[in-house]
């Protein structure tokens, strides 16, 4: 394992320990294939990125965006990140943290609505989605 891979994995482990409240609430609802049998991983490393949640069957990343994602150059950075993930065959669903806090059930419905078509027709993989 290379040094950058070890660093990414260590960062992912740290992020798992330091999840935000919206991430904790969503993970509680997603873990153990509770969402219609779909399995999710939390703080999953993919290339140079660590995804908040990742569903391998749907090639779907679910990102919980705090208010800071609308500030400064963050929207541009997020768009580039989403494009690079798409090149790897990963579709990104961005959900504002406030939506999770308002209704975890509505958030789960949005995730399921987004994930289902991708499980039936997964995007072509552009080099894998592992670390």
Gist of the model:
This is DUF559 domain-containing protein. With 131 residues, the chain is an alpha+beta fold.
Strand and helix layout:
Blueprint (H helix, E strand, L loop, with lengths): L2 H15 L3 H10 L10 E6 L2 E7 L4 E6 L8 H14 L3 E6 H6 L1 H17 L11
Parallel strand pairs: 3-4
Antiparallel strand pairs: 1-2, 2-3
List keywords for this structure.
alpha+beta; four-stranded mixed beta sheet; 131 residues; 47% helix; 5 helices; Endonuclease, Chain A
Structural notes for this entry:
This protein has a single domain, classed as Endonuclease, Chain A (3-Layer(aba) Sandwich), CATH 3.40.960.10. It is built from five helices and four strands. It has helices at 3-17, 21-30, 74-87, 97-102, 104-120; strands at 41-46, 49-55, 60-65, 91-96. Strands 1-2-3-4 form a four-stranded mixed beta sheet, sandwiched between helices. Strand 2 and strand 3 (60-65) form a beta hairpin. The chain is globular. The model has no long low-confidence stretch (mean pLDDT 85).
């Amino acid at each position: 394992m290379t040094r950058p891979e070890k660093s990414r994995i260590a960062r992912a482990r740290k992020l798992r320990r330091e999840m935000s409240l919206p991430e904790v609430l969503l993970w509680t609802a997603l873990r153990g294939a509770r969402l219609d049998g779909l399995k999710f991983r939390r703080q999953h490393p993919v290339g140079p990125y660590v995804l908040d949640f990742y569903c391998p069957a749907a090639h779907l990343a679910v990102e919980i965006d705090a208010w800071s994602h609308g500030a400064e150059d963050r929207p541009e950075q997020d768009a580039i990140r989403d494009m690079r993930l798409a090149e790897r065959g990963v579709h990104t669903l961005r959900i504002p943290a406030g939506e999770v806090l308002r209704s975890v059930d509505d958030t789960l419905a949005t995730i399921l609505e987004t994930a289902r078509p991708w499980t039936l027709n997964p995007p072509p993989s552009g080099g894998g989605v592992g670390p």
